[in-house]
Specification:
Length: 331
């Protein structure tokens, strides 16, 4: 992790369990973390770092070895639910070099999982961010950018074939801080008392639902088929930038946890699986704002007063509250 004062893997797992947090996202197959997760009951998104994509894409044996080392060696005592092959890769911009490797790496990892008969239990996907959305307003007109369709459409086709969800990182904070003239703070924090955006049959009282449904619509508008979305990151910083205050972060995160038991206006029938970024403040990240997304201080003290488990409103589906733990394997 990008911090020099953070707890050990075993301490982190105990912190998850004592706070009734039932799911975790690891960005890297950190062996100490995977060992600590054994028999914890915590479900896991296991990440493949972008730096590993080329090797997995170009050599099926490398993918099989990766699966053996990081999945089969720990399954089923570690409950791996998803493998996120790459994070926020885009065919345009700084990560564009990786884009050619994402789908072949996904397919090679999937084939290695399938060869073990585990493809119904462990779903292989990739995580994208909202920059791949070209139009998000109104949500029903959501569409992917024209210059990413040749990258993303084949991935969506694979996800449809494999019955796997698309992992999407959704941050109302960045939308709000980038456009506070048009986006109100209550709309971003889930505190608007009324519908803010009316979109045909759907009404939106918060930006999170509108952003999420713009992704649902973008997938639907490809006409490829129905693919579910898992929100693989969302959070709000408590310092370091415009609108990044302790109170705003507390309100956003508390309301995001409360929201976890339901779906979105466009897809209301199933709760939205949502992972909060991040477990800890990380003092070596940059820019400054990236240091302040934690739910906990490095001392393991809660930053915010709310809880995550059975003491919450009965509508909260505990298993839908999760947190990300960005361990690096060089820890």
């Amino acid at each position: 992790m990008m911090g020099n004062n953070l707890p050990s893997a075993n301490e982190v797992i105990n912190l998850y369990r004592s706070n009734n947090i039932r799911r975790m996202r690891l960005y890297d197959p950190n062996q100490a973390a995977l060992q600590a997760l054994r028999n914890s009951g915590i479900e896991l998104i296991l990440g493949v770092p972008n730096s590993d994509l080329q090797g997995l894409a170009t050599n099926a044996d490398t993918a099989r070895q990766w699966v053996q080392r990081n999945v089969l060696n720990f399954w089923p005592s570690v409950r791996i639910k998803y493998i996120a092959v790459g994070n926020e890769v885009s065919p345009v911009g700084g990560s564009s070099w990786y884009a050619q490797y994402v789908l072949p790496a996904v397919q090679n990892v999937y084939q290695a999982i399938r060869a073990q008969g585990l493809h119904d239990q462990i779903k292989v996907s990739t995580a994208i961010d909202m920059t791949l959305i070209g139009n998000s307003y109104p949500p029903s007109q959501g569409s992917f950018r024209g210059d990413v369709r040749s990258y993303l459409d084949p991935i969506i086709g694979y996800l449809l074939y494999a019955s796997a969800p698309l992992l999407v990182n959704v941050y109302p904070y960045f939308s709000y801080s980038g456009n506070p003239r048009d986006i109100s703070l209550p709309y971003a924090l889930f505190t608007s008392p009324n519908v803010v955006v009316r979109d045909g049959q759907y009404g939106y009282q918060n930006l999170f639902d509108a952003m999420l449904d713009s992704v649902h619509a973008a997938i639907d508008n490809t006409r490829i088929g129905y693919v579910e979305v898992v929100v693989s990151e969302s959070g709000w910083p408590s310092d370091g930038g415009f609108g990044a205050t302790y109170d705003n972060a507390r309100v956003y995160l508390d309301n995001l946890v409360r929201r976890a038991g339901r779906g979105s206006p466009r897809r209301p029938s199933k709760p939205t699986e949502t992972y909060i970024f991040a477990m800890f403040d990380e003092n070596q990240k940059s820019p400054e704002i990236e240091k302040h997304f934690g739910l906990f201080k490095p001392s393991k003290e809660k930053k915010y007063p709310f809880g995550f488990g059975a003491q919450r409103d009965a509508k909260i589906v505990v298993d839908e509250f999760n947190a990300t733990y960005p361990l690096k394997s060089d820890m």
